[in-house]
Design goal:
By secondary structure, the protein is mostly helical. It has four helices and no strands. Helix 1 runs parallel beside helix 4. The longest helix is centred in the last third of the chain and has 32 residues.
Length: about 80
């Protein structure tokens, strides 16, 4: 079993994934999507609270879903570009 990341490492991943999913103002939409209130997100980001594995799992699903959506969009763009050439 891999070692548990530090609170700060997990907070950095949470912030990076949040920004990738929702842009610079990621906290509100991520909180709404995951059901985590803003104060709890602040505690996670400060390192005062450990981010639960369930939230990390949810975040991973959201990231993978976005990747799938982007791949599909890229394929459609490539298909359209192929029709032009």
């Amino acid at each position: 079993m891999p070692p548990r990341p530090t609170n700060k490492e997990a907070a950095n991943v949470l912030a990076d994934a949040g920004r990738a999913l929702y842009g610079e103002h990621w906290r509100q939409p991520l909180g709404e999507e995951t059901g985590v209130n803003p104060e709890t997100l602040r505690r996670f980001m400060s390192g005062r609270m450990t981010i639960p594995n369930g939230l990390l799992d949810h975040l991973l699903r959201l990231v993978r879903q976005r990747i799938d959506e982007l791949v599909k969009a890229a394929m459609r763009i490539e298909k359209l570009r192929g029709k032009e050439n």
